[in-house]
Design a protein that fits this description.
mainly alpha; Fic-like fold; three-stranded antiparallel sheet; 15 helices; 5 strands; elongated
């Protein structure tokens, strides 16, 4: 539906140039959304896929194994959309105390994303409301170190920002002026908590994401926080009990359509086209995550079967295998700490896994070696190749 411009322009002079900053109208859209027909069917299919995803714990002996790795995959993908050139292996190595070398800025960015998500979810579980205060706290975690740490972490911006171009005067899009940010975010917070608005939570999440990205309330990190907001909102609403839905891979694979639809909402008011795209992303992503969980469960069972028929070293190897399911890159000292095995026993177990083709040594050294659960890492890394 074409509603026309979904906001107003405020004109100001910045650097001697006239700048038209866009101030979005409050949610929900007027006239109201058309959720009938095929859109209603898509919504039902997305919710069904989410329900199956939420029951993923039945597919794995420990859902936290999947959660640990999946959160890191999402952190990597969300950071890649912002230009980060890191890999899942880089992040897992960075999190190992034994991994040598100073961390790259890109890896710190991804690690910060993990910390921000975990912090936000912990606050929600403790009863803290999904609010602008929580959004600012999550932002502070996201920019706590590394690049962007000088861009007012945890504070709404006090100056004009822009998207595309080299300055506001030639930008692709100019968000609201700084003095309008607090009001815009206050209206967004009110929308999130207004129970009189009869919208499904997935639709509400779709609208909130666009509104956040349009306001662009921070000097840096808006894209990552906007994607985090989707997960936090669905967990807060009880649609998901664990943060297993991440749309960054879908957004990454469909970048042109994603940015084009954001513009289409702002300029034409076509919220329905965006909602269709968003719901398709939820459906596709949830189904993909369930498939990944099934593949991992099958991998773990297959490899466990190989180990169990491998003679006297099987006992140690099974305990090493269990540790690698929790963390797919580990050193031998870390294996000892996690399993209680002696160093010789851990070495014997790892040697058997290497012989069976389950693990791969990463360093090529004789000392301070690191081992990767190779096939596990390959499955997790699918789609995370840098742009």
């Amino acid at each position: 539906m074409n509603r026309g411009l979904t906001g107003r322009y405020e004109t100001s002079q910045i650097g001697g140039e006239q700048v038209n900053a866009f101030v979005p109208s409050p949610l929900p859209p007027i006239p109201s959304l058309d959720l009938r027909g095929t859109r209603q069917i898509l919504l039902e299919q997305a919710l069904l896929a989410l329900g199956r995803l939420d029951s993923v714990s039945t597919l794995l002996p420990d859902p936290h194994l999947f959660l640990y790795a999946y959160v890191r995959k999402e952190a990597l993908l969300s950071s890649q959309i912002e230009g980060t050139q890191s890999s899942l292996s880089d992040l897992l190595l960075f999190e190992l105390e034994e991994a040598p070398g100073a961390p790259r800025d890109e890896v710190v960015d991804v690690s910060n994303y993990v910390a921000a998500l975990e912090y936000g979810l912990e606050r929600l579980r403790g009863g803290f409301p999904l609010s602008n205060r929580l959004i600012r706290e999550v932002h502070a975690k996201l920019l706590s170190r590394g690049r962007g740490s000088d861009k007012l972490p945890g504070e709404f911006r006090q100056s004009q920002n822009w998207i595309g171009g080299t300055r506001p005067g030639n930008a692709h899009f100019v968000p609201p002026p700084s003095q309008a940010v607090a009001d815009c975010m206050g209206q967004l917070e009110q929308f999130l908590h207004d129970e009189t608005i009869p919208l499904p939570v997935l639709v509400k999440a779709a609208l909130a994401h666009v509104q956040f990205e349009t306001v662009h309330p921070f000097l840096d990190g808006n894209g990552r926080v906007g994607r985090l907001l989707i997960t936090l909102l669905l967990c807060h609403a009880g649609v998901l009990t664990q943060p297993l839905l991440y749309l960054s891979l879908y957004f990454k694979q469909n970048r042109a359509a994603y940015y084009g639809l954001l513009d289409k909402v702002r300029m034409d008011g076509d919220w329905e086209a965006w909602i269709d795209f968003f719901l398709e992303g939820v459906r596709t992503t949830a189904r993909g995550a369930v498939t990944t969980a099934q593949r991992l469960a099958e991998l773990f069972n297959t490899d466990e079967g190989k180990i169990q028929t491998s003679g006297r070293a099987a006992g140690s190897a099974l305990r090493v295998h269990s540790a690698l399911r929790e963390r797919p890159i580990l050193s031998l000292p870390d294996i000892c700490r996690r399993t209680g095995l002696s160093f010789p026993a851990a070495t014997t177990g790892m040697t058997l896994l290497d012989k069976l083709g389950i693990v791969r040594e990463l360093t090529g050294r004789q000392r301070n070696r690191l081992f990767a659960y190779d096939r596990y890492l390959q499955i997790l890394s699918e789609g995370t190749e840098p742009l």
